[in-house]
Amino acid sequence: MLPELQEQEERLQFDRFDHEDAWDLGNHLVGLARERGHPVTVDIRRGDHQLFHYALPGTSADNDDWIERKIRVVRRFGHSSYLVGQTYRDRGTTFDQQPHLDPARYAAHGGCFPIILRGTGPVGTVTVSGLPQLDDHRLVVEALGLFLGSRSPE
Fold first, then answer.
1. Which residues in 1-140 belong to E strands, given as ranges?
2. Model confidence band, residue 153 (pLDDT cutoffs 50, 70, 90)
3. Model confidence over 107-116: pLDDT tens digits?
4. Per the confidence metrics, is the pTM higher than 0.90?
5. Which of 39, 83, 111, 150 has the fewest CB atoms within 10 Å around its CB?
6. Cα distance between residue 63 and residue 84, in whole Å
């Protein structure tokens, strides 16, 4: 599974990412979630700047807490929160068992993906919370693929 997760990060990269892109991507993600009846919260940031945040019915402030914890993992490790968690699972342990990171502040659960600028690296995050972790991850990856595929060449 790790090779597939790494391939996603190689493939799902932006040539540019600005406020309008965050708005469009966020609305696209919310649309997918609504179509499927998924009670999720969507969050998009560039650096520390929150550019998009929307909570669908059925979510709570707990989803916001999960988002913050997942974002900290992506910022610290530079990879999707699911990839980081899977790395530990593949080693026969869990991220939460690591003594150096407080699980109340860090969650290596699926749903947060780095916004990667081609040739630059991670510049932000897109996060979903509300589904089982693999489903959160898959929803973000699907939305990124559709969004990036729909953009006209520059």
1. 13-14, 41-46, 49-55, 112-117, 121-129
2. low
3. 999 999 999 9
4. yes
5. 150
6. 20
